[in-house]
Design brief:
349 residues, 434 Repressor (Amino-terminal Domain), 19 helices, mainly alpha, globular, 3 domains, Serine Threonine Protein Phosphatase 5, Tetratricopeptide repeat, single chain
């Protein structure tokens, strides 16, 4: 694998974002399958020095050594740019210059999209590793990736510009999710606003619907406002031209919101619709990238979620119990649904 390919590794990128030089060397060696001696010619350090850094006996404070490691390990440009972006939470909102770049989309021009392809692959890795590597560590990396994407837009036109706007919207959604997890609701909504605008500008109906769905989720889980949550979930369902996968998650969110309002028959109908739509897209390649997780097992788990919201405790327990073994690679989700299973069993009596 090339050095650039190695830098798609999420743990390695997170180590870089933290500027944890010991972890950078360790994670690079793990990803590359190198011994400490194998790393010597790349970074220009002897094995005892590498060992001392990795063990914490020696701190990397010299700009020369940092530059040697950075160059020797071929750190991608979007990561070197990320070093200067290590914000406090209050600095996490979307800056004006991002919108200025988007405003210049659809001008005439041609752009080499290889950088965008690479960044899209990396974002997909970030999504899948969210349980294992915290979003807080990866925040500056993803912000830098978003900069790299939006800087391509002013010189791009037509379908290529639309494609870049979708990638920008995907990044903005990811940043919103991380901000929400770090208890910054205003910032989370600001990123959703720009994600929705970029999705609409680029003609991406699945992403436009998904952003409504996430707003509904925030309203229900953070604000405890099922009326607003249902209204927004129905807006997600009203977007025309969606894929079955996007329709499915919008219907599921509407089901949960309806259940919170006590409209259980409506919730059950919506849950059945969500499951039916999800079973039409069992293959990952037929779903939007951010819905990689909507496997048949996850679709059944969503049905169990809706049953739980409707207080159908026996159905919820059976559905969660059947799907729980499939969540072994997602420790946070596994713990969440284990707690729900325990509660459903207790309530079922």
């Amino acid at each position: 694998m090339s050095s650039r390919g190695l830098w798609a590794d999420v743990k390695l990128r997170a180590a870089w974002a933290r500027q944890d030089w010991a972890a950078i060397l360790r994670e690079y060696r793990r990803a590359a399958g190198l011994s400490q001696r194998g790393l010597e010619p790349l970074v220009g350090l002897a094995q005892p020095d590498i060992s001392a850094i990795e063990s914490g006996r020696r701190q990397v404070t010299s700009a020369e050594v940092m530059a040697r490691i950075t160059e020797g390990l071929s750190v991608p440009s979007e990561l070197t740019a990320a070093v200067s972006r290590r914000p406090d939470l209050d600095e996490w909102g979307p800056p004006t210059e991002l919108r200025e770049r988007i405003a210049h989309g659809h001008t005439t021009g041609r752009t080499d999209l290889r950088t965008a392809d690479w960044i899209g692959e990396v974002l997909a890795q970030h999504r899948r590793a969210e349980d294992e590597v915290g979003g807080r560590d990866l925040w500056p990396v993803v912000r830098s990736q978003l900069d790299a994407v939006t800087l391509l837009i002013p010189g791009t036109a037509g379908p290529a510009a639309d494609r870049l706007m979708l990638l920008a919207a995907e990044h903005a959604h990811w940043l919103s999710w991380v901000a929400a997890q770090n208890d910054r609701p205003g910032v989370a909504l600001a990123w959703l606003d720009v994600a929705h605008g970029w999705a609409v500008d680029g003609g991406h109906t699945d992403m436009a619907s998904w952003v409504y769905r996430v707003r509904s989720y925030y309203s229900l889980t953070r604000d405890g406002d099922p009326i607003r949550a249902l209204r927004t979930a129905e807006a997600a369902r009203s977007v025309t031209g969606m894929s079955p996968a996007a329709e499915s998650v919008a219907a599921h969110q509407a089901a949960v919101a309806a259940a919170a309002l006590g409209e259980r028959d409506r919730a059950r109908r919506l849950a059945d619709e969500a499951l039916r739509l999800a079973t039409r897209v069992p293959d990952e390649g037929d779903r939007p990238g951010w819905l990689y997780w909507l496997t048949p097992d996850r679709a059944q788990l969503q049905a169990a979620d809706a049953a739980y919201a409707c207080r159908d405790w026996q159905a919820a327990a059976e559905g969660i119990r059947a799907a729980l073994p499939q969540l072994g690679a997602y420790p946070r989700d596994h713990a969440y649904y284990q707690a729900r299973l325990d509660e459903a069993i207790r309530r079922a009596g």
